[in-house]
Structure formats: structure tokens, C-alpha cells
Amino acid sequence: MIVIVCANPALDITYAVPSLRHGGSHRVRQVREQAGGKGINVARVLKQIGTDSVVVGFAGGPIGEAVHADLDTAKISHKLTPIKAHTRRSIAVVDADDATVFNEPGPVVTPSEWQSLTEQFAAHVAGASVVVLAGSLPRGVAEDAYAHLVHTAHDAGAPVIVDADGHALRHAIAAGPYLVKPNVAEAAELFDGALESTEDVLAAADALRARGASAVIISRGSRGLVAVTEDGSAFSAHSRQTVCGNPTGAGDALTAAIARGVAHSHDWTARLNEAIALAAACVAVDAAGHFDEATRDEIKQTVEIKVLR
Amino acid sequence: MIVIVCANPALDITYAVPSLRHGGSHRVRQVREQAGGKGINVARVLKQIGTDSVVVGFAGGPIGEAVHADLDTAKISHKLTPIKAHTRRSIAVVDADDATVFNEPGPVVTPSEWQSLTEQFAAHVAGASVVVLAGSLPRGVAEDAYAHLVHTAHDAGAPVIVDADGHALRHAIAAGPYLVKPNVAEAAELFDGALESTEDVLAAADALRARGASAVIISRGSRGLVAVTEDGSAFSAHSRQTVCGNPTGAGDALTAAIARGVAHSHDWTARLNEAIALAAACVAVDAAGHFDEATRDEIKQTVEIKVLR
């Protein structure tokens, strides 16, 4: 079983409008709604590739109930600790040209609510094949919260994959997780200056290993990814074919592929191949957490993996 | 007791952002949320002026529950018939320059759900001093639905105020309500051409009386209103002082003032004075259904009522 922590889930709402006008009043043509947040997106992709997981997180208020109900509909196992504050919404207004996104600040979680989550986590992690810590921490939770969960997972013998950014990521790395997976902007934020060339990205990945992570994947959008494994081997991977569409959630599909690969003890080549294909297949579909199976199968034939070291 | 039908309530959500950018990703600074829809706004204003009412309407899904909970918090009596489809949201994104609004299409109501509402309505209307039918009809409900409610109210001896537009208004007028209260744009929609001068507006009000309404108020924004009473007298009313702010909900404050005036058998001068003052005091406050009491008291001293006929 893969245990996924989604500490700051959201109700993702998508509004289709003909054209967004500042100051205008819009009749929304179509409303789509699904439970979201990085961890839940990862669980959704895992479900579609036939891998069960359990999502540990928070849910509060009527929006929390909607997240609950949507996970039930999607048959994704979950253990959401009830909180007093309300789960956040994220609204994407999509017109012919672009997507305009509004992210609510989200709930403030109390110390005792966080304590309940850590107890749920400890109970589930006992039998976990892999642990995924994905997305932002809610307000009210200490910056080093992920670091504590990494230690709990280690005590239970489960490898941890962290997909976070900023201080939460910094602290998590110092706790020595199996793998961290920032994108190139998130990785750059931990250093001074941009990461342009493959050499830059590789150097950053090495630096993150030096700080505590056993393995590192840095994703680079349509340019693919750079991976440094637990034994120091380094690869780059990308697809020769570009997929156009909505990149939201592509990183979560990548995390899902890697988590499954780790759970099944697949080798790094298989993991990276699946990761590139799933991420691209997710771009082909509008909603985060979903992917197009035909695109996945097609892209798999076009992935190029280079041994950098 | 004033009975208010709010057949298509909404959860009104307001997002404060520094500046709306098309294609951008926005951190929402502040989220406000309250039950809305014209009928609920009327009930909220009535509450603040010390007049109890009961809202009859629909509520479905988690958004319906949020509407429910907010009415309970505001201590507004309600009898919301449960529906299978979900209550709609309306989102206003407010930045330094403007408000940009997204209205969801709202639920489709089934014939048996509408039947339940009419039964609730009939049960409450027995002891009603005034009935208010406010706002749009939900999808799935016949265009002449308000006309049937007007007949039910008449059978119970209760005068009816209608605040609607388009076909729902057209049919309601033919059923002979006590008063209709379109704004100038809504009134113009029922005729050919714009209503510019006071003479135009008065002629339109007379035409609406000829179609079946006993009395008519046509509101004209900062230009005040034109009223024709049940005995054919005509007035214009406006404030000498202009209030700057958010006009959303000002029409609902006007309806609330008139409903209270009718319930208490106030004369037309008192009704119009209160209506102009409450509408202006509502403009002074950001959220619909709320008003500033100091502004109300101040504006009351500046209202000019002219006898047109």
C-alpha cells in the first residue's frame, strides 16, 4: 500500500467561459469540480494505473465534505482528519485563450489537529511500501512538519518521496528522505540563480543529495527531467514527441509513476520511462490527476534516457 | 409575517485580490461567503430593520448546506426544499479597479421538487402579511411558475411583490400582483427601446399596470425611482446626495423597504422615503443584503419626492 499525505487538499473547480473580461459579469457555461491538491492528484493517477493508495489529510466544512464525497466516488481510500476550519477551493477560469487561477488561502490547522494527522499517518505507515508527502503544508503547521513524518516513515521502514517546495522541502531534505522531486523552479529557489543547462540541474541535484536526500529527480517541463539515483548514477530523460495541453498535474503524474516504480522495485530505467510517459499523457487531458492512456502508450515508445554519469 | 420566495438561491463568494491578470495565478487575500440570491438579500435587510420573514426556496448538495448554515447564523427563518442537484455559486473577484463576476448556471429542478416548494409556499402564505417573489427561476421550472404563486397568494389574501425579469416577470404581471419592481433595464426589456426620460419611465409603469400589476416601481440607479400606485397616482423619488460604492443588492434593499411598508400599511410617501434611503445605505456597504445605518438616517433627510400625477 502506498500512503500519501495530502495535508492541504482543495476542491478544484473549473469554470468554462467564452472570454474573461475584467469587470464583466460572466455566465459560466460549464462547471467541473473534483477533489485536488498534489497528493490527491497522485492518488487519482495511481488508481488509473491500477495501484491502490490511501490518502491521509484534512477535511473541514462543506468543502471538506465535497472533497470526501469526490474521493468516495473515485474509489480512492482516504483517512481525512476532520478540522474546524474549512478546506480551501481553487478556481480555474478557462476561456479560449488561457486559464486564470484563484487559490484560496486555505484553513489554519490547530496543533491538536496536526497531532491527529500524525497519529493517522503512524497507524497507516506500518504496512506501507512507499510514502508520498505531496503539496503545501496548511497554515498553522510548523515548517519542519514533513521532516517529522519522514522520521516516522523511516522508523517503520518505508521509503519516502517528497514533492514540496520552499521551507517545507528544505526541512524534509535534511531528514533524509528516499527521493525529492522538485521542478526546476522549485529547485532553483533553494539555490542562488537559475538552473538553465543540464549541467546546472545535475549540480543542483547533487547538492540536494548532499543535503540529505538519497535520490533526486528535477523535472524540467517539456525538457524532461534529470535524475540522480541513490548510488550516485545520473540520468536525463525526455520524450522526442511534444504534447500540447494543460501541464497542471503533470508533476503529480510523474510522482505517481515513480512511487509505483519504487513500490514494485522497478529499476530506474523503467521508472523514468513510465514517469515521462505518464506526465506527458496527463498534459493531453484538461483535468489534473487524469491521463490519456493512448498518449501514454505512444509516448513510451519515444522516451530517450541518457546516462549522464 | 413576510413570506419570501427565493427559488434560485446562491452561495455568494467574494475574493479580494490585488490585481486580476488574465492567465495569471492569484493568491486570494480574503474570502467572504454568504447566502445570496435576491430573496435572501431581501430577508437579510428585513432582519436588520427588525422585520421577521421566512424564506421559501431550494437547497441541494454541499453548497445548499452552506446556504442553510449561513441563514441559521443570520437567524433568518427558512424552509428550503431539498433538491438533488447542487445549489449554485456566484463568485465576485474584487481588485482595486473593479469586480469581475462568475455566475454558475445553477441546478435543474424537477417537477416534483417544484411541487414540494409550492406546497411549502401554500402552507406559509396562509398567515402572510406580504409575499415577495424575488430573483430568477431555476432551470427546469416553467416560465409561468411565479404566476401560479401569485394566484395562490391571492387566494390566501396576501398582496404580492414581484422582483424578477424576462418571461418570469411577464407572466407574473399577467397574474395581477400587487406590485412589480423592475429596474429600468428590466422594464425596457419588456418594451421596444430604451427608457430615458422620466416621461418614458412613467409611460412604461402605466403600461405594466395595464398588463395586470396594481402598482409599479421602476428603479433608476442613482436617479432614484418612479412609482405608480394602485389608485393611479404617480411619484418620482430620489436623494439629493449621491452615495458611492457597490450597487449590488441595492434593488433588494429597496424591495425590503417596500415590503415592510406594505406589511405595516405605511403610506406611499413613507414607503418611498425608506426605499430610497435603504437602497443608498446598501450601496455604502460592500456586501449585498447589508446596509449602513448612519447613511440610511442621513439619506432619509435628503430624499425628494415629487408628485408626477
Structure in words:
In chain A, helix 8 (250-263) runs antiparallel to helix 9 (268-283) and helix 9 packs across helix 10 (293-300). In chain A, strands 6-5-1-9-10-11-12-13-14-15 form a 10-stranded mixed beta sheet, sandwiched between helices. Helices cover 38% and strands 25% of the residues of chain A. The radius of gyration of chain A is 19 Å and the shape is globular. By secondary structure, chain A is of the alpha/beta class. Chain A has helices at 38-48, 61-73, 111-125, 145-155, 166-174, 184-189, 198-211, 250-263, 268-283, 293-300; strands at 2-6, 10-16, 25-27, 30-36, 53-59, 77-82, 88-94, 99-103, 130-134, 160-163, 179-180, 215-219, 225-228, 234-239, 303-307. Chains A and B meet through strand 3, helix 2 and strand 8 of A and strand 3, helix 2 and strand 8 of B.
Distinctive features:
homodimer; 309 residues; alpha/beta; ten-stranded mixed beta sheet; four-stranded mixed beta sheet; globular
Strand order of the largest sheet of chain A: 6-5-1-9-10-11-12-13-14-15
- Oligomer class: homodimer
Sheet having the most strands of chain A: 10 strands, mixed
Beta content of chain A comes to: 25-35%
Number of strand elements of chain A: 15
Number of helices of chain A: 10
Précis, in short:
The structure is a homodimer of 309-residue chains. Helices cover 38% and strands 25% of the residues of chain A. By secondary structure, the first copy, chain A, is of the alpha/beta class.
